[in-house]
């Protein structure tokens, strides 16, 4: 397959599923939808952040003597979750467009889906470029149901904590934010550990992620009722 076709198929396989999930989550904010241009900015910024995260993760890998240990996995999770938050913060959360609690969740999910879109694209590119086209289809489907939703669940956890503290004092907001980041890192770390340990039963891992998504939907409904 030519390089151009490889790039096109990789982009389609990585970005289209993420956009489908984005469409699904944006419906949770139907009453006061966010500006489409801002959503696009956050999504693209989430994609770009992958190029910042990868060098950090390679550096972490070298520090841990080029072995995937528990410390490596934790540091990778911290890097990804912190950068996804930074992306959402500077492109939307610090802006006046984030004017209600639910907005924090929407923008964190958008940044996470942008990040996941390019991450999935790179995974698929490596497979397709080596002639493993059928394997890329399987990988794309599994990441659509697993890794992509893990990014959503972990980043949305930060958004949920920001939302719950939306009308509280600055100190309380910082405590909730730090708690949200810690929880997101924990979820991300556990998922990655399970992927490594239970490779023959990914259905078990994906079921756990789907439970998190159901809980997220429940929390979003509660956040809609948060008032000043």
List strands and helices in order, with pairings.
Blueprint (H helix, E strand, L loop, with lengths): L2 H24 L9 H28 L6 H24 L7 H29 L3 H13 L1 H18 L5 H28 L4 H22 L5
Helix pairs in contact: 1-4, 2-3, 2-4, 3-4, 3-7, 4-5, 4-6, 6-7, 6-8
Give an overview of the whole structure.
By secondary structure, the chain is an all-alpha fold. It has one domain. About 80% of the residues lie in helices and about 0% in strands. The chain contains 8 helices and no strands. The protein has helices spanning about 5-25, 35-65, 70-95, 100-130, 135-145, 145-165, 170-195, 200-225. Helix 3 crosses helix 4 (about 100-130). The protein starts with a helix and ends in a 5-residue tail after the last helix. It is found in: Cell membrane. Belongs to the protease PrsW family. This is Protease PrsW.
């Amino acid at each position: 397959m030519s390089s151009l076709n490889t790039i096109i198929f990789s982009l389609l396989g990585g970005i289209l599923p993420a956009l489908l999930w984005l469409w699904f989550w944006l419906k949770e904010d139907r009453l006061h939808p966010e500006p489409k241009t801002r959503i696009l900015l956050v999504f693209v910024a989430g994609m770009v952040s992958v190029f910042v995260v990868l060098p950090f993760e390679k550096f972490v890998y070298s520090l841990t003597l080029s072995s995937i240990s528990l410390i490596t996995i934790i540091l990778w999770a911290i890097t990804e979750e912190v950068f996804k938050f930074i992306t959402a913060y500077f492109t939307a959360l610090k802006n006046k467009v984030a004017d209600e609690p639910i907005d924090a969740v929407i923008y964190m999910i958008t940044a996470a889906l942008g990040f996941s879109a390019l991450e999935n694209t790179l995974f698929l590119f490596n497979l397709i470029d080596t002639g493993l086209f059928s394997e890329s289809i399987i990988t794309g489907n599994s990441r659509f149901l697993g890794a992509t939703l893990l990014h959503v669940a972990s980043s949305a956890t930060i958004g949920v904590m920001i939302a719950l503290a939306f009308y509280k004092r600055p100190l309380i907001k910082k405590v909730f934010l730090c708690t949200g980041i810690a929880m997101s890192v924990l979820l991300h770390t556990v998922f990655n550990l399970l992927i490594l340990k239970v490779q023959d039963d990914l259905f078990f891992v994906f079921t756990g992620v789907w439970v998190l998504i159901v809980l997220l939907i429940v929390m979003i409904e509660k956040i809609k009722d948060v008032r000043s």
